[in-house]
Amino acid sequence: MSTKERTDSDLVVLGGGPAGYSAALRASQLGLSVTLIEADKIGGTCLHRGCIPTKALLHVAEVADAARRSEAIGVLSSFTGIDAVKVGEFRDNIVARLYQGVTSLIKSAGVEVISGNGRLVGPRTIAVAGRTVTGRFVVIATGATSKTIPGIELGPRIITSDLALQTSISPRRAIVLGGGVIGVEFASIWASFGAEVTIIEALPRLVASEDTWSSTQLERAFKRRGIAVHTEAKVDSVQESSSGVTIDLSTGNSVEADVLLVAAGRVPRSVGLGLEEHGARLDRGFVATDDRLRTNIEGVYALGDLVAGPQLAHRGFQHGIFVAEEIAGRHPVGVPDHLFPRVTYSHPEIASVGLDEASARRTYGDITTGVYDFAGNGKSQILRTAGGIKVIQAGTAASPGPVVGVHMVGERASELIGEAQMTVAWEALPEEVAHFIHAHPTQNEAFGEAMLAIAGRPLHSHR
Ligand code: NAI
């Protein structure tokens, strides 16, 4: 990089979602001057159209289910319906509070924020809002957007998650096209709100990126909840009218509903940013980087959903911190993609970290697996949740290796994945974790029991 080049900031960040704003915050903590360019609102998809508003709706769904089930445990209440306006207020207040928090963090960190659509016009220069800003380093973190399916035009009744969230839509009958994370979360919300829900998935199982055990657990639970699931189903045609949507499937089935949610994946937002014009290499739309998140343009990094891998907000946060520390000369340690914990916040929840059984077998050959069923866990019984914890260990009883994967299905599994992440990332042996103490009665005990069981000394489990 030319040392004579005049720069406006040490770091210019394009995109203020979790990846971009955490790069900006960390860089400014490390003494760098930072300019952050955002076309919409700081917080990005996660805060405004993703993680936070969906989880607010999922909490409402949980309360609706609790009301429905309350009489069975002696609390005399009943579920009579959803007040969409109040739900919307609840969701929006949470988003607004967090938005205020993050904007004030950015402000007090001294980050210069420019509103507008930025575009690379020089190797490290971005044009935005009628001016140009040149950085010693540039970070591109423009995220991803919903994928559309050829032949299925979006319309008032054919929507993506953006609209499903914004309008507090509460359909009577809903079709969800795509049984991945977004699909099963919305199917779960709408079923809890009282809708008849059908999921259509092209692959043989729901949440196909998870361990097959987790998919089976979820499919069983969804069946009990009355959610219809068509797997290995291709769409032949879709008709939208003023009163509804009809979808014809390759299986010969046809399904009608008020709303069709297209949840078929998210594509990186890499077009129109001037990346290719300046020599950046793209791969299926994702910006290609090395393992230090460097693109092939000198001084330009790409992070978050723009880089192929799990599209998770906490991966974005970690990428942002990593790159800020990297350019500040701190030599940070990277986190491989399989060590990011993954959570699907449906009812029941799915949480996992590390390898699934098939990948572990491919990687290690000999592996040992065990499942601890929540049926043996007191707190899970109190919460009336089915499910359990599956542990995958490299090696055999004769030659035990570390825990390389943990998969959980059940209520509040999201709150249990932290210890599992640490166990897998630390490459701990089950025996090393098994002697740690878990408070009784907690669901967390199930993790301890799973470790005891796989270490060959089960306490509360049937063998
Ligand atoms: P996804 O890739 O998880 O699932 C999309 C599903 O749609 C796949 O199973 C695919 O086989 C299916 N599909 C695609 N085209 C189809 C067609 N024509 N007919 C039938 N099925 C079809 O993508 P999703 O659910 O849209 O989520 C996007 C990203 O956002 C994911 O990477 C996800 O991890 C992330 N996300 C994470 C959340 C979380 O961490 N809780 C919440 C929501 C999204």
Account of the protein in words:
- The protein has 463 residues and is of the alpha/beta class.
- The protein has three domains: 209 residues, FAD/NAD(P)-binding domain (3-Layer(bba) Sandwich), CATH 3.50.50.60; 107 residues, FAD/NAD(P)-binding domain; 107 residues, FAD/NAD-linked reductase, C-terminal dimerisation domain (Enolase-like, domain 1, 2-Layer Sandwich).
- The protein has 13 helices and 24 strands.
- The structure holds 1,4-dihydronicotinamide adenine dinucleotide.
- 1,4-dihydronicotinamide adenine dinucleotide binds next to helix 6 and strand 20.
The unreliable regions are: none
Q: What percent of residues adopt helix (DSSP H or I)?
A: 25-40%
Q: How many DSSP helices? A: 13
Overall form: globular
Oligomer: single chain
Can you identify the CATH class of the largest domain? Answer: Alpha Beta
Structural class estimated from helices and strands: alpha/beta
Number of strands: 24
Portion in beta strands: 15-25%
> How many structural domains can be distinguished in the coordinates?
3
- Quote the average pLDDT: 95
- CATH hierarchy: architecture of the largest domain: 3-Layer(bba) Sandwich
Which molecules are bound besides the chains?
1,4-dihydronicotinamide adenine dinucleotide
Largest sheet data: 7 strands, mixed
Give a concise summary.
This protein has 463 residues and is an alpha/beta fold.
Q: Tags for this entry?
A:
single chain, 463 residues, alpha/beta, FAD/NAD(P)-binding domain, Enolase-like, domain 1, 3 domains, 7-stranded mixed sheet, 5-stranded parallel sheet, 13 helices, 24 strands, 25% strand, binds 1,4-dihydronicotinamide adenine dinucleotide
